From TrEMBL:
UniProt organism field: Deinococcus rufus
Record-annotated Membrane insertase YidC/Oxa/ALB C-terminal domain positions: 333-511
Keyword entries, A-Z: Cell membrane, Chaperone, Membrane, Protein transport, Signal, Transmembrane, Transmembrane helix, Transport
Secretion signal span: 1-24
Protein name, UniProt field: Membrane protein insertase YidC
Membrane topology annotation: Multi-pass membrane protein
Length: 546
């Protein structure tokens, strides 16, 4: 396989890997950002309506008891799994039938209340929820669910936060037991998630091994987690601020009698957290991606033993903290991305300079390399091949070209990968210019067109001495155009700005290298020496006269 073909395939494979194609379920649908709202409709086909909170990040389906019967986390932010038909009805077929979309509760019910006289499997007297409201500016969707069973009345006040995976659950039980269990099944596609809980004042998490069951008293948090990745999920619960086991409660503080929250953990494919709470409780729930940036923005990376970043994760945390610092000074996330891109390119300028000079020298050498290759094209014997290698080595020496210099381009890769992952997963709270939301693709496709133009421009600058290579590799960017249409707008802005800076740098380097190599291989006529000049003069004087 020729090198140019291998590079092309590698580029496509890298793009597929970075975007997670083939592993995140259905590919995203191009369109505008989803405006968070409550949808009231028949979701499960049984009599009565369900209540669906939809947003860019997830679709959560509640029944009339306030139990979650469908919990769909989106692999691509902004993907509209729910469609509205022309007659005004809703089409939920993608959520229910499409392979690759994961229902985290997997046919079970989350937020179900269980105790003496309260049985999720038995009928109850229900009514339509109240307070179904959405406040985009305040980043919240609210609902109040109420039902009566066994003489007890259960009231659940649910608050979802559309720009994160967090849900606040306030539960009030009147006329019933003093303590109840709230069930949190999750991670429907995981065969064996990590199931653990951490006690207030504990030294390490307690983990349920296999399908075993384990009870953790006075929890700071309890969690079900898949191995961290872009497609992994986590379900985490912790007491809200001001209640036992919360972040605001000192580790040494003893909870009031009957107020401690414990969790019974069950491992295996039927992973379950059963939280034992007082009749009046307030819990915070995280149900979404088990991924560093989302957990960081939700305030979970400080919880002991919950998430340990790898090398790239540590770099991502430095980047996101730098972004937050810049935002405090600038106040606009779009401008933060502009400044961040310029800063990082400035830091990496020396490394990119070395790689750019290597690229420029290779381009200048291309005609001579072709001459040597053509010269030995039909000569396959060992002596000829050695001679060709010798001529190539001499050419490299003449042009001061070191093939190992190409590897300098890989040095910034850890930072670039971490930066890409950080921006991709970061939840911005504003748009920029014509963009309504930096966390979802550009709905007007303007960035995708600019992305295509600047990348083709960069390719031209790097292959200007080899038109054939330009034509062959330019077709790759037609494929890349699809990814530009699906990248979050913030990611595309970073790529465009970084590429433009790279083009300017490469043009400058090209001119420098062309000046430096302009005289290589050019024969210069030397002036005759003085002795030769005298001899010629003597010959002229002694020449016989006619």
């Amino acid at each position: 396989m020729k090198t140019r073909h291998l590079l092309s395939l590698t580029a496509v494979a890298a793009a597929l890997l970075l975007t997670g194609c083939g592993t995140t379920g259905p590919l995203p649908t191009f369109g505008k950002a989803i405006t968070p709202e409550w949808i009231t409709a028949d979701f499960d086909g049984t009599p009565g309506d369900e209540y669906i909170a939809t947003s860019n990040l997830q679709d959560v389906v509640f029944n009339t008891r306030g139990e979650v019967i469908g919990w769909y986390v989106k692999g691509y932010a902004g993907t509209p799994y729910i469609k509205r038909r022309g007659d005004g009805t809703w089409d939920f077929s993608a959520l229910k039938d499409q392979k690759g979309i994961v229902n985290m509760v997997a046919g079970r019910k989350a937020l179900a209340v269980q105790a003496e006289g309260l049985n999720p499997a038995q009928p109850a007297q229900t009514s339509a929820p109240t307070g179904l409201t959405t406040d985009v500016a305040a980043n919240r969707q609210d609902a109040v669910f109420r039902y009566t069973q066994g003489g007890a009345t259960v009231t659940k006040t649910v608050t979802l936060h559309p720009r994160s995976f967090k849900i606040d659950l306030k539960t009030e039980i009147t006329g019933g037991p003093e303590r109840v269990n709230i069930l949190f099944p999750g991670l429907g596609k995981a065969d064996n998630p990590r199931v653990q809980g951490y006690s207030v004042g504990g030294t390490q998490p307690a983990t349920a091994q296999g399908t075993a069951t384990l009870t953790v008293e006075n929890i700071q948090y309890a969690a079900l987690q898949e191995n961290p990745s872009q497609v992994a999920h986590a379900l985490i619960i912790r007491p809200q601020t001001g209640t036992a086991g919360s972040a605001a409660t000192p580790a040494s503080a003893a909870p009031a009698a009957g107020q401690a929250i414990s969790a019974t953990l069950t491992g295996g494919a039927q992973g379950l957290i059963s939280a034992s709470v007082p009749a009046s409780s307030n819990l915070e729930i995280y149900g979404g991606k088990n991924e560093l940036i989302h957990l960081y923005q939700s305030g979970y990376t400080t919880l002991p033993g919950l998430f340990k970043p790898n090398f790239f994760g540590d770099i991502s945390l430095y980047i996101v903290k730098l972004m937050e610092t810049l935002y405090k000074a600038i106040g606009n996330w779009g401008l933060v991305l502009v400044v961040l891109t310029v800063l990082l390119r400035a830091v990496m300028w020396p490394l990119m300079q070395a790689q750019g000079r290597t690229t420029a020298r290779m381009q200048v050498m291309q005609p001579k390399i072709k001459e040597i290759q053509e010269k030995y094209k039909e000569r396959k014997d060992m002596d000829s091949q050695r001679a060709m290698q010798a001529e190539m080595a001499q050419l490299y020496r003449d042009y001061n070209f070191n093939p190992a210099g190409c590897f300098s381009t890989f040095i910034p890769f850890p930072v670039l990968i971490a930066l890409w992952s950080t921006i991709r997963n970061f939840e911005f709270d504003s748009g920029f210019l014509w963009l309504p939301d930096l966390a979802v693709p550009d709905p007007f496709y303007i960035l995708a067109v600019i992305y295509l133009i600047v990348n083709v421009g960069q390719l031209y600058v790097m292959t200007r001495k080899n038109p054939d290579m330009f034509r062959q590799q330019a077709m790759i960017y037609i494929i890349f155009l699809y990814f530009a249409l699906t990248f979050p707008a913030g990611v595309t802005i970073y790529i465009i700005l970084s590429t433009l800076i790279g083009i300017v740098q490469q043009v400058i380097i090209n001119k420098q290298v062309e000046r430096e190599t302009a005289t290589i291989g050019v024969k210069v006529e030397k002036a005759p020496s003085r002795q030769v000049a005298r001899a010629n003069a003597a010959k002229t004087i002694d020449a016989p006269k006619k």
